[in-house]
Amino acid sequence: MFPVIISASTLTLFLSFAIPFDIAKAAAPPSYAIWAADSGIARGQGNGLVNGIPGVSYEHGEFQWALRLLYESTGNKSYFDYIKLGADTILSDDGRTLAAYNVSEYQLDHLRVGPTFLYLYDKTGDEKYKASADVLRAQLDTHPRTVEGQFWHKQRYPNQGWLDGVYMGDVFYAFYTSRFESKNQTAWADVNLQLSLMFNHTIQLPSDANYTGLLYHGYDASFSTVWASPDRGHSPEVWDRAVGWYFMALVDLLEFVPPTQELHKTALKQLHALAPKLIEQADPAWWLVITEPGREGNYYESSGAAMFVYSLLKAVRLGFLDDAGGRIVAAAKAAYEYMLDHWVTDNGDGTMSWQGTVHVGSLDQDGSFQYYISQSVDTDDLKGLAAFVLASIEHEKL
């Protein structure tokens, strides 16, 4: 169904993206968003292949979302073609089979490619993309939940809700509902429930140690994991990228969810509660473990910072955050300059590399500070590079 051998036409298309960015522009690129996106494409990132084999990847979904915005802002059709190439690589001809997708795993991560399929369906009218979105949407009908109704992050993490899952699964859920079931109030209410439960179970309280007012990485509704707190079952630390996923979910939801929906009101209320707290933690970037600023072994992490810059600037631009005093934009701009100074590397061949992205952050162990800081830090990790493209798009709209 998914041969590793690629057709000559597809290979020609792929190689066309590998043309290096003009070296003359590399020293002072007119657009960091374009430079970063073109560099990722030149390396073959986000093309539907995972370790050389077709497979569903939330990282690809994030990058494709960024390329969509870049295509819309530049009109450069090569970005659209690359999105389509990535989707076609993992889909059967009728769209009903997705490479390396197994519904029984019940991973919210896999749903992140859903917005790509919806976008391609709207742009091309090809029914295979609607069919593939239908396959992912059907997962939510049987996806396991906590007693209160929160989607489990994955089948292998019973009763656990993670911030990451809101970006991976619930943005697609709402996007699909807005496109095909706009009058389905049960669906709208369900997405609203997901945000409400996640926020209420993970928000830091003033009485908590190392209070920041932000969100813990996740919670266990069964209180059975080693890291579950006795009061609400939350994990012990605020991890920057988990909060970054959540912030991006909020602003992206606010952009397309009708203001008349309770979900819009909930997302806006949460954004207003969290944004001031996030600004307080900017130093000028954000610590990997936000609850432990300056602690030995902690460091500024690049993917979370880029996600925050994107979210804050987009929220101000669209009027979801009032920045009359200019504090939000000032903090985002300072963080962006830090990003350019510390994490963007000119490779000398027309491409750039993105530094400082932690490879993974999970709640499959003890969720401790030592766990987070012990994870490897990568160069050109797509989770961070895609977020930098998003942040750069917003920064360049200032």
From TrEMBL:
Which superkingdom heads the taxonomic lineage of this protein's source?
Answer: Eukaryota
One Pfam family for this entry, by name? Glyco_hydro_88
| Gene3D superfamilies hit by this protein | 1.50.10.10
BP terms from Gene Ontology: carbohydrate metabolic process
User: Which SUPFAM superfamilies would you find in this protein's record?
Assistant: Six-hairpin glycosidases
Q: Which InterPro entries match?
A: 6-hairpin_glycosidase_sf, 6hp_glycosidase-like_sf, Glyco_hydro_88, PolySaccharide_Degr_Enz
Q: What is the name attached to this protein's record?
A: Six-hairpin glycosidase
- The scientific name of the source species is Sanghuangporus baumii (Phellinus baumii)
